[in-house]
């Protein structure tokens, strides 16, 4: 690739007219080549052929498949080649019926409309089902829940930090429950000699069996690999947080099937009704009323709670009661709950003489307690009641009423789970947005109220108000109810009728048993028909409810309101109205369709209103419920007969006298009559045939009450799923049915329609559909849409002519869809889809039957496809007309001529069959050699008349019979068009107004077309047809035109209306994705390519390209969400040059790679780059990865948002592959991984901008720079010190796997462009790991072999970063993160709600997100974990449960382990690749660094076993890496190994000690001596001991013993001194450890601690580096304790040590001659002279390599010593130090420092003068302290001098020490002797500790222990 990257190639490319590269591209390219950034002009390099900004022409999918034999692939791979044969299937899903019987009218003579309705409500759902669709991410999203499910059964990984964090790691992990030996009882105090003895007696860890065998490296590698493959996690991405829900644009869910609408349901049970006196039956009525809306919101429920004796009084009138009328409980539905709803209870009784007040009196006056007193009265009342019941039992009168305020019940019963489940608490996500109809929106603000979650309540209602004869109407009731809510209610002043009504109110159960629907059908489940039923009460919603009818319902409610007979003379006072439903004028023709009330028959032929006594103009509150017959005819009418009822029996007087008649004919012009009526009443019986007219017509010779004025007010309401009750819908249905029946002439209102006028009426009616009122339109939307489809598909034939209504019907459809959308705006999902319409398309839409409905039962005609050019419906000249008429003059299309890429508009002749108009058989790749894209967006130019013309002449794909005129015997011809063809055509030619409506809801039309196409294929058995022949060319032309124009709309609207552009974009992508399952896939790819080109053209001039890019990203993501995405990428067809690994590699290019002597293999390279061939074959994967590549461009616009989107898209797809059972096999998954190989190069090149998880400056390019041949690595190396030694010298903590240890040389690539967030970086890295894990290792090896050195370096850097990104943080980290998460989730939740509620637009949201940086960006201590990155998925609790934390730690541990193992696998591949190369040293060094980093980070025991095995293999194959190079790798390795040797987990120790042993052996074999390893191990141990808090020396001892055991058992080296040297080293290390234990023991005893440190430092006199380290450690400890003078002395010793070393190196006059120069300060300094040349030669490796062994270091040490002396007040010594320092500064001419030094000297001398007089210079008080007793171990009989602050009394120190040792050994064990006599040991109690203490001048202070 080298030569082609040169400027000449690029320049050529820019000037070439064929590759019009965007100017910005050129600029990017040039600047990149200058800067030499790692992108190295990748994006545009000519080696890739086409620049990434251009979409390459895909292969012709179908041709490729045809050219490959089906069995070309072995076994499991065969399924990847082609879609499964059963991909598409037709499902008939039975429609869910709620009731046990269907409840549709029996087949009688049904008219067309009823028949259509019945069919619609009974036919099964027809679903065109894609069998594998559920496997796509769109339908089976990977969410937190599914991840949780798949994470079950993970094995817990064991981590050192968890084991040490809680000391209870399981027994098998560590061998000894006592992990730390802190107490002196555990660890016997011992001298060095006894230490050696201890080490011999220790038990070793188990040995690795094959460690000492000398096996061939290949065998070792094979064995290691086999072990690594065991117990691996199958799916890497299951362990990573689920993809971001916000980005899941491809998410879909199947719509819910249409169901009957219910609001919130309340169950009301009437338990008992008891009055003070029981004398007669009382009947109850329940209903709900909404006071605010002034509306009755439910039908009546009638109940009867009378005792059997009371019911017996009515025996004379009763038939046997039907069980349905015995219901005592009812379920009310409330769609719009509000605090203004009342449950109104009305009571009635049998009619009796006297007005209501008289009848109520006994109930108000008499009390139950007075029964005995009122016995006679009661008897009298009972007798009267009995008589009235016998005589007037069929009539009722109003009695009393009361109301229950529901809001009080709901709130007082308390919301049981209001908080947990209320709407506000739930955060909707893509999947979770509840589909809320407007009916589900609880009213806003103060009246929000819910009837769904309250606790059941039992009420006892005691006060009833008597009914007032003058105030019975609903208006009066609403006034009473409003008054009831006031605190000073007038009703309270009235005397009540006392009674006890007990009712239960509770939320209705989900599926109640024994339930009857409003039509009295049994609702499932209905276990026993004899059980007492519960009635469902029909709701009359307070406001509109938009829901389609799903079942047959045909009910009529009659409400008589008032009657005015005041002008009637005579005895007309006790008035009742009888209602009958008449089917003719004969009295016997009254139909039994009136529903019974309570305790009566189910249906009756007549019903009466209650009677108001002595009232000539009564008001009524009655409701009659009627079941409308299926066929209402002109003969049907309601008859009202008015009676006067005589309450008193008089001889000769009839019980009831008819006093008036009126009626309502139910049909008028074919429409059901409903609404309010004010009718005149006739005095006489009406004459024959009266029912055909309305009572408003004054019939001759009839007498009318009040001179034919309206005196009877009545209202009819229908609740019907047959009669729309909307004039526009009624007219439309009537006309459609007339055409279907063909019954002409026909009367429509006043006009008579014949065949000549019906077409005009129908067109007018179609246009007028948009005027229909929304509620009925939505309710009948399925009917309307079905009829419109039918009109398109089967144009009516009027007078033998086909009437083409396609265009009008299409426009009507657009408006209907628009209206339905608008009505249901609140219920739309996130994508703007209306669930009701989505359900229609998915379930209800079907192609009208292929068999024509023929009058007279003629046999159906078989239809045959008309030949394409010669059918009578399509003149051959049409093609010509079409191709000519395409110009650019149509104003409807927003396309300027020539604005679309010329290449796109160019049409080339197609090959194959001569179909110049068609896409069929062409290799439609736009821009390709065989391109056939539209000349300009089609039809955009045709003048509208031509377009209409054309659409009318394009009749059908099917034409009945032959082209000759049908003979007389043949039925009239019927035409069947194909809906998808018509829709595409009409859409393309539509005018601007309609087009706008269609675009707003394009998704609906796209889905309709797709289902139509699918049904066409399924029903026509065309699935076996080759895809290229399934659909005619002209239809594909229309589709191409359509996609082009919709794509253009997306691009042009994106800046005006982002939301619409987003919705259109998604709809278009889903449409193309659906087409991939139905049509020629190459054709669809060409459409995708055309769309991309449109976007690319626009991007050049777009003001804000980020928005367009976001849309394109979503578009790509949706396409890639196809369930056969893998197959669509042709994974099994080799890239045009076959890329199967083959041993012969030859190439014409002369460029050679780093590792192979041959030239790189272009086939392999093209698989790992976004090369032309890759993008051509793997078309969709190419698009996706190209989007990612462009988003990761350093100069990309809106970068952070695009990064996130692009990476999330890839991540989501990979998660899908992991979860997909089709790709479970390793061979299949390897093939899938090939689609993502370029991701490796992409991530490698993006490395400088990834988040740096390794937390160190310049870390990203640490290895690349080392390998980059251009950087002078060696030169840079000279100045750097060995960081681990530096750390040890500084005494600072060496972080686990010291980050600094790998940094080397300067970073080459500066951070350019926008950095990726930690979250995006981590996700990108996990995707990279997925590819590395699943790809074919042989392929990766060949790729690595072809990489240039710097590229390989960057790859290693990438692996290094992966280790850092997925490092395990331990359980404690999760607890820490919890609180952070909470804050973020609340903030984001608020934003999310804001976005959902629409207070901010999608565009602002997007812009805001793109600007926003992550709130956690710079906090090192925060892990980008599931809990942080996926705030959506954390609950709102701050604290997770312990189980959740455990689970997260478990998953994270597994992720860290798997990620590290994948890195290890890859490193092994790289090692195998570079074995033979010349540059292998540098690469292997880099590889080893990554291995070392992995060993130093927090890793599980499982990984460490494999990691250490790899490390051993590396060292054994390439020992020179560690022992010959001048490198710090050895030091690093020793430190890591020692740390693991001290692990609490035995498995880790086993492997670490094996590694350490082999390291020594290897070093020894090279030179019979392992000085380097010895030195490094000793230093490492010292730094570990000094700095690590929870270091376990006990476990380290076991490892030392294990190493000893290896040395003893190693037969190969028995004759050498190796075993002896190992033993010396081990004992030396053991000594250091022993001292360490003591240091730990004396952590609380500073004097002892310092003494120990002094002894340890003394022990290192032969090792200057280590002695210096310990001197500094000691100085630090002294300073911490405030002993500044002592700290100064330590620094003087350190300076003397360095001076000795420098004196050996060179003889400089300005330098001190050695330690002698310091003896004025302290005579002890002469100890440092031990470092003479007999101990070491200055140039020996590894010695004195620290930064302090320089002049600069010496200056620093002296300055620190002077500072400490000053702080300690030893000013004389300050002078002595500066005497040594000044000559050095003078030699360096450092006058600034000299000035400072002299200033400090002046201060020191001044202080000596001022303080010499008094107490200020008393430096301390000294005590002699001795220890006696066995308890003190080594200290027994030892004496020390203690220095205490000045003027410390003996009592103070003795008290302090006594307290310290008492706490340590216990009460009564320590005793103090405070005299100065010598101690006689024989007199002391040996079990106690004795301590005399006193000033040195006076006696001692002794301890006994």
Short précis:
This protein is of the alpha+beta class and 1905 residues long.
List keywords for this structure.
single chain; 1905 residues; alpha+beta; twelve-stranded mixed beta sheet; five-stranded mixed beta sheet; 62 helices; 42% helix; disordered N terminus; disordered C terminus
Question: What would you note in describing this structure?
Answer:
This protein has 1905 residues and is α+β, with helices and mostly antiparallel strands. The protein has 62 helices and 38 strands. Strands 3, 4, 5, 6, 7, 8, 9, 10, 11, 12, 13 and 14 form a twelve-stranded mixed sheet that branches. Strands 34, 35, 36, 37 and 38 form a five-stranded mixed sheet that branches. α16 (755-768) runs parallel beside α19, α54 packs antiparallel against α55 and α57 runs antiparallel to α58. The radius of gyration is 48 Å and the shape is elongated. The protein starts with 6 loop residues before the first helix and ends with a strand.
What is the mean pLDDT?
A: 78
Silhouette: elongated
Cα separation of the termini: 80 Å
pLDDT < 50 stretches = 1-48, 165-194, 414-447, 850-973, 1136-1152, 1269-1311, 1393-1437, 1732-1736, 1895-1905
- The counted number of beta strands is 38
User: Main beta sheet, described?
Assistant: 12 strands, mixed
């Amino acid at each position: 690739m080298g030569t082609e990257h040169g400027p000449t190639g690029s320049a050529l490319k820019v000037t070439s007219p064929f590759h019009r590269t965007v100017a910005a591209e050129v600029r990017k390219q040039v600047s990149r080549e200058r800067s030499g950034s790692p992108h190295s002009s990748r994006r545009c390099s000519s080696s890739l052929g086409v620049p990434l900004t251009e979409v390459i022409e895909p292969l012709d999918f179908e041709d490729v498949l045809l050219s490959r034999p089906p069995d070309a692939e072995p076994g499991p791979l065969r399924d990847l080649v082609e879609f499964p044969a059963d991909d598409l299937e037709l499902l008939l899903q039975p429609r869910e019926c709620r009731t046990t019987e269907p409840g549709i009218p029996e087949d009688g003579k049904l008219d067309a409309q009823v028949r259509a309705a019945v069919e619609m409500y009974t036919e099964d759902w027809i679903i065109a089902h894609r069998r594998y669709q559920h496997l796509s991410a769109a339908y089976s999203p990977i969410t937190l829940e599914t991840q949780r499910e798949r994470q079950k059964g993970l094995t817990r990984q064991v981590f050192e930090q968890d084991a040490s964090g809680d000391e209870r790691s399981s027994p098998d992990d560590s061998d000894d429950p006592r992990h730390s030996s802190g107490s002196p009882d555990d660890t016997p105090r011992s001298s060095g000699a006894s230490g050696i003895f201890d080490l011999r007696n220790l038990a070793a860890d188990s040995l690795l069996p094959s460690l000492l065998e000398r096996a061939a490296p290949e065998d070792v590698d094979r064995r290691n690999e086999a072990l690594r493959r065991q117990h691996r996690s199958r799916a890497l991405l299951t362990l990573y947080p689920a993809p971001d829900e916000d980005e899941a644009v491809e998410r879909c869910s199947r719509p819910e099937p249409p169901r009957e609408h219910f609001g919130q349901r309340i169950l009301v049970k009437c338990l008992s009704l008891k009055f003070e006196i029981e004398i007669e039956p009382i009947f109850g009525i329940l209903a709900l009323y909404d006071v605010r809306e002034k509306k009755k919101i439910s039908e009546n429920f009638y109940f009867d709670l009378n005792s059997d004796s009371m019911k017996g009084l009515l025996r004379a009138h009763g038939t046997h009661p039907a069980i349905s009328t015995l219901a005592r409980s009812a379920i009310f539905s409330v769609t719009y709950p509000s605090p203004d709803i009342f449950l109104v209870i009305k009571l009635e009784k049998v009619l009796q003489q006297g007005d209501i007040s008289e009848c109520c009196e006994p109930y108000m006056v008499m009390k139950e307690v007075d029964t005995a007193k009122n016995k006679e009265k009661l008897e009298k009342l009972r007798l009267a009641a009995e008589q009235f019941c016998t005589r007037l039992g069929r009539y009722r009168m109003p009695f009393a009423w009361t109301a229950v305020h529901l809001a009080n019940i709901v709130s007082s019963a308390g919301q049981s789970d209001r908080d947990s489940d209320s709407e506000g608490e739930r955060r909707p996500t893509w999947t979770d947005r509840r589909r809320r109809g407007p009916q589900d929106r609880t009213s806003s603000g103060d009246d929000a109220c819910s009837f769904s979650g309250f606790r059941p309540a039992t009420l006892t209602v005691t006060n009833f108000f008597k009914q007032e004869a003058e105030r019975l109407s609903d208006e009066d009731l609403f006034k009473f109810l409003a008054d009831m809510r006031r605190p000073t209610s007038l009703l309270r002043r009235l005397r009540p009728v006392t009674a006890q009504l007990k009712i239960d109110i509770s939320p209705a159960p989900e599926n109640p048993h024994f339930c009857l629907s409003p039509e009295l059908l049994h609702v499932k489940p209905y276990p026993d028909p004899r059980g007492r039923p519960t009635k469902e009460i029909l709701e009359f919603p307070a406001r509109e409810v938009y829901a389609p009818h799903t079942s047959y319902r045909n009910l009529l409610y009659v409400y008589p309101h008032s009657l005015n007979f005041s002008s009637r003379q005579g005895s007309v006072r006790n008035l009742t109205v009888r209602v009958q439903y008449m089917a003719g004028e004969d009295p016997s023709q009254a139909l039994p369709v009136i529903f019974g009330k309570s305790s009566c028959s189910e249906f009756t032929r007549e019903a009466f209103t209650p009677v108001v006594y002595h009232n000539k103009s009564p008001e009524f509150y009655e409701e009659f419920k009627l079941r409308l017959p299926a066929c209402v005819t002109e003969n049907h009418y309601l008859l009202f007969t008015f009676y006067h009822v005589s309450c008193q029996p008089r001889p000769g007087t009839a019980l009831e006298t008819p006093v008036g008649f009126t009626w309502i004919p139910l049909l008028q012009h074919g429409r059901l009559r409903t609404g309010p009526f004010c009718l005149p009443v006739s005095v006489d019986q009406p004459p024959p045939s009266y029912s055909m007219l309305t009572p408003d017509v004054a019939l001759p010779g009839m007498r009318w009450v009040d001179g034919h004025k309206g005196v009877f007010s009545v209202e009819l309401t229908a609740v019907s799923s047959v009669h729309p009750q909307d004039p526009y819908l009624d007219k439309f249905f009537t006309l459609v049915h007339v055409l279907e029946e063909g019954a002409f002439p026909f009367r429509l209102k006043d006009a008579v329609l014949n065949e000549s006028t019906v077409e005009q009426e129908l067109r007018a009616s179609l246009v007028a559909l948009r005027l229909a009122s929304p509620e009925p339109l939505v309710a009948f939307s399925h009917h309307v849409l079905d009829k419109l489809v039918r009109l398109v598909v089967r144009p009516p034939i009027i007078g033998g002519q086909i009437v083409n209504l396609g265009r009008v019907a299409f426009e009507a459809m657009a408006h209907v869809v628009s209206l339905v959308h608008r009505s249901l705006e609140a219920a739309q999902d996130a994508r703007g889809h209306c669930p009701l319409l989505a359900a229609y398309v998915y379930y209800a839409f079907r192609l009208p039957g292929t068999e024509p409905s023929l009058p007279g039962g003629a046999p159906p005609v078989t239809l045959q496809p008309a030949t394409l050019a010669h059918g009578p419906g399509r003149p051959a000249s049409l093609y010509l007309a079409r191709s000519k008429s395409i110009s650019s003059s149509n104003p409807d299309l927003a396309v300027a001529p020539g604005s679309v890429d010329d290449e796109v508009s160019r049409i080339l002749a197609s090959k194959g069959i001569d179909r110049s108009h068609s896409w069929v058989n062409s290799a439609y790749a736009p821009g390709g050699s065989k391109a056939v894209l539209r000349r300009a967006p089609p039809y955009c130019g045709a003048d509208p008349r031509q377009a209409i013309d054309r659409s009318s002449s394009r009749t059908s794909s099917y034409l009945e019979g032959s082209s000759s005129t049908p003979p007389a015997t043949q039925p009239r011809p019927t035409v069947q068009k194909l809906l998808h063809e018509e829709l595409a055509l009409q859409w393309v030619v539509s005018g601007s107004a309609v087009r706008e409506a269609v675009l707003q809801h394009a998704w609906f039309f796209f889905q309709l077309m797709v289902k139509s196409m699918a049904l066409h294929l399924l029903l026509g058995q065309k699935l076996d047809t080759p895809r290229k022949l399934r659909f005619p060319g002209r239809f594909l032309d229309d589709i191409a035109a359509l996609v082009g124009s919709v794509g253009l709309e997306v691009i042009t609207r994106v800046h005006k209306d982002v939301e619409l552009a987003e919705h259109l974009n998604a709809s278009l992508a889903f449409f193309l994705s659906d087409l991939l399952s139905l049509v020629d896939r190459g054709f669809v790819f060409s459409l995708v390519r055309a769309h991309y080109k449109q976007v690319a053209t626009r991007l050049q001039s777009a003001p804000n390209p980020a928005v367009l890019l976001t849309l394109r990203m979503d578009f790509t993501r949706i396409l890639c969400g196809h369930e056969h995405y893998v197959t669509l990428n042709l994974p099994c067809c080799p890239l045009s040059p076959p890329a199967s690994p083959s041993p012969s590699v030859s190439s014409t290019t002369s460029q050679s790679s780093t590792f192979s002597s041959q030239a790189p293999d272009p086939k392999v390279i093209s698989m790992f780059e976004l090369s032309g061939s890759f993008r051509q074959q793997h078309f969709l994967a190419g698009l996706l990865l190209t989007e990612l590549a462009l988003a990761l461009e350093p100069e990309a616009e809106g970068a952070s948002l695009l990064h996130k989107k692009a990476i999330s898209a890839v991540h989501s797809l990979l998660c899908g592959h992991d979860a997909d059972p089709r790709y479970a096999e390793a061979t299949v998954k390897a093939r899938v991984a090939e689609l993502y190989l370029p991701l490796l190069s992409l991530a490698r090149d993006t490395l400088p901008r990834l988040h740096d998880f390794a937390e160190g400056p310049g870390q990203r390019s640490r290895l690349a720079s080392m390998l980059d041949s251009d950087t002078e690595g060696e030169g840079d190396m000279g100045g750097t010190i060995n960081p681990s030694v530096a750390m040890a010298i500084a005494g600072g903590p060496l972080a686990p796997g010291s980050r600094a240890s790998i940094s080397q040389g300067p970073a080459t690539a500066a951070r350019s462009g926008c950095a990726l967030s930690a979250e995006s970086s981590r996700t990108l890295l996990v995707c990279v790991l997925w590819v590395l894990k699943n790809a074919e290792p042989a392929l990766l090896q060949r790729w690595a072999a072809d990489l240039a050195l710097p590229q390989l370096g960057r790859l290693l850097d990438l692996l290094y970063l992966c280790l850092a990104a997925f490092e395990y943080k331990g359980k404690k980290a999760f607890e820490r993160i919890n609180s952070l998460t909470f804050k973020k989730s609340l903030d984001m939740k608020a934003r999310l709600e804001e976005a959902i509620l629409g207070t901010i637009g999608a565009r602002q949201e997007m812009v805001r997100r793109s600007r926003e940086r992550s709130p956690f960006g710079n906090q090192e201590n925060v892990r980008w974990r599931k809990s942080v990155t996926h705030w959506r998925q954390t609950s709102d609790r701050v604290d997770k449960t312990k189980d959740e934390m455990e689970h997260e730690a478990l998953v994270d541990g597994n992720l860290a382990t798997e990620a590290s193992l994948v890195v290890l696998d890859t490193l092994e591949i790289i090692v195998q690749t570079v074995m033979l190369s010349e540059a292998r040293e540098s690469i292997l060094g880099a590889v080893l660094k990554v291995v070392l980093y992995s060993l130093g980070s927090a890793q599980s025991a499982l990984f460490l076993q494999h990691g250490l095995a790899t490390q051993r293999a590396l060292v054994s194959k390439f020992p020179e890496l560690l022992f010959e190079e001048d490198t710090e790798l050895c030091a690093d390795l020793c430190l890591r190994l020692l740390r693991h040797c001290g692990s609490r987990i035995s498995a880790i120790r086993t492997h670490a000690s094996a590694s350490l042993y082999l390291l020594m052996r290897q070093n020894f074999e090279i030179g019979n001596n392992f000085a380097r390893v010895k030195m490094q191990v000793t230093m490492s141990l010292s730094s570990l001991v000094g700095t690590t808090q929870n270091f376990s020396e006990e476990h380290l001892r076991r490892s030392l013993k294990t190493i000893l055991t290896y040395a003893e058992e190693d037969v190969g080296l028995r004759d050498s001194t190796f075993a002896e040297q190992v033993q010396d080293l081990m004992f030396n290390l053991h000594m250091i450890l022993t001292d360490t234990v003591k240091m730990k023991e004396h952590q609380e005893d500073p004097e002892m601690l310092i003494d120990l440190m002094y002894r340890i430092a003394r022990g290192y006199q032969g090792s200057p580096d280590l002695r210096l380290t310990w001197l500094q450690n000691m100085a630090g400890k002294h300073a911490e304790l405030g002993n500044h003078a002592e700290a100064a002395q330590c620094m003087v010793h350190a300076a003397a040590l360095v001076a000795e070393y420098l004196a050996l190196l060179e003889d400089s006059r300005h330098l001190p001659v050695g330690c002698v120069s310091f003896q004025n300060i302290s005579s002890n300094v002469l100890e440092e002279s031990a470092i003479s040349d007999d101990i070491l030669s200055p140039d020996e490796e590894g010695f004195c390599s620290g930064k302090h062994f320089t002049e600069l270091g010496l200056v620093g040490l002296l300055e620190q010593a002077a500072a400490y002396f000053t702080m300690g007040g030893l000013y004389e010594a300050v002078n002595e130090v500066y005497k040594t320092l000044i000559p050095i500064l003078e030699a360096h001419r450092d006058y600034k420092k000299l000035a400072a030094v002299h200033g400090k000297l002046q201060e020191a001398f001044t202080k000596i003068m001022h303080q010499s007089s008094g107490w200020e210079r008393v430096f301390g008080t000294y005590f002699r302290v001795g220890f006696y007793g066995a308890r003190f171990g080594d200290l027994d009989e030892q004496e020390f001098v203690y220095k205490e602050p000045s003027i410390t009394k003996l009592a103070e120190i003795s008290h302090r020490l006594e307290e310290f040792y008492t706490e340590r050994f216990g009460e009564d064990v320590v005793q103090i002797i405070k005299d100065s006599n010598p101690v006689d040991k024989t007199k002391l109690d040996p079990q106690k500790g004795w301590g005399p203490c006193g000033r040195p001048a006076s006696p001692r202070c002794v301890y006994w222990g």
